[in-house]
Amino acid sequence: MADKSEELVLDRVQVKKAVQALQAFLKTKSTPDSLLLDESQHLSLLFTLWKIPKQAQTIRIPLPHGIRTDTDEVCLFTRDEPNMTPDQTQRFYKKLLAERGVKNVTEVIPYKTLRTEYKPFEAKRRLLGNFDMFLSDDRVRRMLSSHIGKHFYERKKEPLSVNLQSKKLALDIQRTIQGTTISISKKGCCCMARVAHSGMAADEIAENIESAVSTVVTKLRMKGPLIKIIHLKSQSSVALPIYTSNMNHLTLLEETQKQARAAMDAKRNSSKQKSAKEQKSTERNTGTEEEIPQLVPIVTPSKKAKLEKQTKKGLEKAPNPTGGKKAPNPTGGKKAPNPTGGKKAPNPTGGKKAPNPTGGKNAMKRKSKRTKKAV
């Protein structure tokens, strides 16, 4: 909500002068046709805020003097009653409005009829052009945005929700129809609200302006000074300023910004000092601590080297079965007797050489010559 300590006071005399000047300008621009048809232009307030809002918001503004005539067409969207057809639902709500004394609503459209009969684009455009204002049952308000289309919002004719179960239904609908709304966007710092029409008296327009400004100031969800400038304008005129904020607010903004910057600088310096102290403490701790020796991996010898070492050790340690003495000779140191009695063994061939089965070398040469001649 807005800061209630801020006081926005309008100069009633200045507002009335601006209204009279605007009415005089519109009379000079009017044509005989417009006078015969009693065509009046809308008068709107243009609010310029000090900063862009962080959240979008729609504010309803009740006005002491209605800005709509009895000839304005108002359409009401209702929910579908259980166990009723769309025609029966339409008759049911028309009867309810008549019993409660509501006379401003000219047409009742159930939700099912809106989905079926007004589904094409051309049907939606005709519906938008046939009525000046749209109301909706608060029980189906959230479901309407996907069916009515974006043109309702572009023309600023989006349905306003009404509680049809209220005991003061006639008063609530009358306030909604005769009041106005303002849409505050988070994309810019300017917003506009329709507060009167050119056919109203100057005093009535001034009262509506004061009521609209006070409502916006109290319901706006922002902190600090809110409104910078307020202008009054019509559809075809220039904007006339009726309120300008005190420029001392700029000095307050500068002071608050300086304080914020000083606080940020102090935080940064403190964080830097803490980091420097931590670095010094870590350096001291690392200097006092003993150095940890590094572990050197042990190189394992190859399997062959291990086997060689083991065999050498085994040979060196193996015991001698003779106890270091020579083995005894079974013959008692004497030579073994010769069974032939010292004589040579007899030759079975009688001392002659055995015959050569191959016939000697000459036989081999003869065979080789025979083979060559055959080839």
TrEMBL record:
Q: Which gene encodes it?
A: rsl1d1
Q: Which compartment or compartments is the protein found in?
A: Nucleus, Nucleolus
Sorted alphabetically, which keywords does the UniProt record give? Answer: Acetylation, Coiled coil, Isopeptide bond, Nucleus, Phosphoprotein, Ubl conjugation
Protein family per UniProt: Belongs to the universal ribosomal protein uL1 family. Highly divergent.
Query: Quick check: keyword Phosphoprotein in the entry?
Result: yes
Species of origin reads Salmo trutta
Among the GO molecular function terms of this UniProt record, one is:
RNA binding
Q: Where is the composition biased (Basic residues)?
A: 363-375
Its Gene Ontology cellular component terms are: nucleolus
The biased composition feature labelled Basic and acidic residues covers 275-287, 305-316
Protein task: Regulates cellular senescence through inhibition of PTEN translation. Acts as a pro-apoptotic regulator in response to DNA damage.
Q: Where is this region: Disordered?
A: 261-375
Main location class: nucleus
Kindly provide the name given to this protein in its UniProt entry: Ribosomal L1 domain-containing protein 1
**Which InterPro entries does the protein's record reference?**
eL8/uL1-like, Ribosomal_uL1-like, Ribosomal_uL1/biogenesis, Ribosomal_uL1_3-a/b-sand
